[in-house]
Design brief:
alpha+beta; 6-stranded antiparallel beta sheet
Length: about 800
Amino acid sequence: MLSRVGLSIRRWRRRFSRSEWIANLLGLSSSGRQPHAPGLILLQIDGLAYPELLKALANGRMPFLKRLIRKEHYRLEHMFSGVPSTTPAVQAELFYGVRQAVPAFGFLVHETQKLGRMYDPEVAALVENRAIFHQRDPLLRGGSCYLSLFRAGTKTGEAHFCPADQGWGPALRSAGPLTICILLLTNLWSLIRTGALIVVELLLSLVDCVRGVMQGQDFLKELMFIPTRVGVTILSREFCTMGAKVDISRGLPIIYVNLLGYDEQSHRRGPRSAFAHWVLKGIDDAVARIWRAAHASDRRHYDVWIFSDHGQEQTKPYEEIYGRSLGDALSETLSELPQPPEIEPGQSRRGVQLERARLFGSEWMDKKEVEQPTEGNSTKTPLALTALGPLAMLYNLELGGVERAEVARKIVEQAHVPLVLYRVDPTAASSAVHGWWKHGPVRLPEDGRKLMGDEHPYPEQTIADMISLCSHPDAGDFMMYGWCATEEQPLTFAMENGSHGAAGPRETHAFALMPEDIQPPDPQIDYWRPQDLRNAARSYLRGARPMKLDEHRAPQKTLRVMTYNVHSCQGIDGTLSPQRIARVIARYRPDVVALQELDVKRKRSGGLDQAERLARLLSMDVHFQPAIHLNEERYGDAILTHLPAKLIKKGILPGPPKGKGRLFNPAADESRGAIWVEIEHNGCKIQVINTHLGLSRAERLRQVDALLGPEWLSNPRCKGERILLGDFNALPTSAECKRLCGYLRDAQEQAPRHTPKGTFLKVRIDHIFLSAGIAVKKVRVPRTVLTRRASDHLPLIVDIEVPFRSGSSQPP
C-alpha cells in the first residue's frame, strides 16, 4: 500500500517537474527509466582546500554539507591534487586517468611552439586529442559536463560552458517563440530568484570594488571584475544547477558540474577572505538542490559525490613586493649571458579571473598576447616565459656555455624566486633533477623533505610529482616556484591574492566528501588522488560491491548487530534493488545482520537469490531459512556475518490457532520461521536467533512460547550470551514483548542516553533482545533519505560489548 501511494506521488511530481518540461520542450534525449541502474553526479567545488572547508563547516557557511556528514553518512576525506595543482591536470586524471596532462594552466605547446592557456578552445582540444588520451576510456561517456575544460567522452551538445562545445546553445536557438515563452513561464520563480541574487551580488561587487580601490588596486581592473564576478558566482552556478537537474530528469548515467565561485573570489581577495567564504553559502545551496533532485529521481539510483580539485594559497603578488614583473626581473638578472634575453611580462601581469568571463562570451575584455611574433618563416624555437600563478616556466634560454646551476642561482639570488628546478640534461627524461634555493643547491628527491617542510601534508608525493613534471614535453627548461618551506609568504607571479598551480601545502590539499559505503582506495593510505576517484566512479557505475565490511576495521571488543526487514528489496518508490539494501547495510558496517522478508528465486523479484546476492555484495557469509518454499521459490529470513559462524538450527514456528488470524489478511497464512547461528567474537561464543513473527496476537504468543522453549532459547546448546532479534510485529507494551523481557532485555530500553525510536511508521515493531551479560553501548535507527526509500522498515543497529571468556586474550 505504501509503495503504491509513493509511486503515485512520484508520477504526479514528475508530470509537473520543471526539469522534465525543459527536457521535453528542447527535445533533449533521455536514457529511459532504469530505476535499478546506478547513476553518478560529480560536484566539484573549484579551489576549496580541505582546511578551508573545515573552517566553512565550523562557521555555518555550508550547512547542507554539514548535514550530509551528520545525518546522511558521508565521510570527509583528504585528497592530494597532485602537481601541478590546476583544474586541467586534475580533470585529465579524473576523466582519463592521465597524470600531469599539462605542466601548468598556461604553457608553451610543444606541437605549435606557441604559448597557450587551457581556456583557449584550440589548446584544450589539442591536449585532449593527444594519443595518450585516446588510449583511455573517458569517464563521462554517455553523460554531461558543466564548466569542464575537456569533453571527456560526452556527446556533442552535452558539454556546457566548455571551450570545446556549445552545450544546449543550438537547441535553444532552434526553439520557437512559443517554446521559449513556455520555458520562461515554467521557470519564472527560478528567474526571479536568480535576478534577486544578481542584484545582491552586484551590490556586494560594488562594495568590493570600492574597497579594492581604497587598498590601491587598479580602478579599471576592479571595475571590469564586477560583471565577471556576477557571471561566475551567480549565473554560472544557477545555469549549471538548472542544467544538472534537467540531466537528472533525463536519466543520464553520469553528470559532472564544476562550481567556480569560490575559486574566483579566492584569486581576487584570497582563500581566507570573507568574500570568498560568502560565496560558499550559495554553492552549498546549489549542492543541496542537485542532491535533492538526484534522490527524487525515478530514472536511476543516483549517488552524489562532492570534491575539490585543489586548494589555494594566500599569496602576495611578486610584482607588488619587488615593483617589477618577473619578466623584467629575469631580463635584468640574465643580462650577462652571451645572448641576453628580453622577456615580456606576458601573463605575469594578470590573473586567471578575467579569463573566466570568456566562457560566457565576454571577448571584449582585455586579452594580452603573450607570445612574440616571429619574423618571416623562422623555425627558431622562441624564448618564452609563462607565469600564470605560483609556477613560472622559462623556455628555450640560450645559455652559451653557462652552467644551468649558475643560471638557477642567479634567478634565486637576484630575481628573488624562492625555488628553481631544472634537469641536468633536459634531453634525457631520466636525467637528475637539481635546483637552487636561498640556502644553496638542492637535489631531488634527496632534499625534498627540507624543501617541503614538516607541515606539508604530502611531501613525498609532491616531490615525486615535481620531479616528473620537469620532464614533461610542455614544461620549461627552468621551473620557478613561488613557495618552498623557508618562505613565510608564498608568492604568485600573477596579480592575485590567492593562487594555485604549484606545490604548496594548501593548494595540493583538496577534499572528497563521499558516502561511507564507497571504499577508500587503500587502507594504508589516508588520502585520495583524482585517479582513485575515477576508479571508484567506474566501479560504482559498473555496479560493483559497495564495501567489504570487515576491511579497515581493527580488532575491537564492540560488536555491531543490525536487524532489518528489507521488504523483498523493494523500496517505497517501487524500485527493486538489492544493491540499494546492500548500500544501507554497508554504510553502518555491522558485524552481524539479521534480515527478514528475503526472496530467493521468486518470479516477482526477477528470480534473483537475494540472500546470496546481498552476501556477495557485502563479502559476508550467509545462512538462510525459508519460511515459505514453493517449488523453486523461497521466502524467508537470513543471518549475514563476516565472523566465524556455525548454523545450529533453523525451522518453522507454530502458526495461529485454528480459525484465528485469517479473516482480514491473507498474509496471516504465511509460515513463520527462525534461524539460529552461533558466532565467535574475540574468543566468546554468542547465540544469535533471527525471526519474523506473525500478524495476529494469538499467533505471536504461540511463537514467543516456542522461541523461549526447549527447541530454541532453553535448548541446552543455547548457552552463554544470547541475542534474539528480528521483526516481531509487536509493540514494546504488548504481551509478547513483555513475556520476552522476562528472560531477555530490550536493547533500546538499555542504551544509555537513548530515546527508543520506531522502525515502521514511527512505531517499534523491530527489536533486539539481549541476555543479561551483554552491555549496550549505542543504538541507532537511521532515518536518512536512503533508509526511508530502500524499504518500508528502518534498520535497527545496536553496538554491544560482550564479556570475554576466561583465559581468552583481549584485543588491543
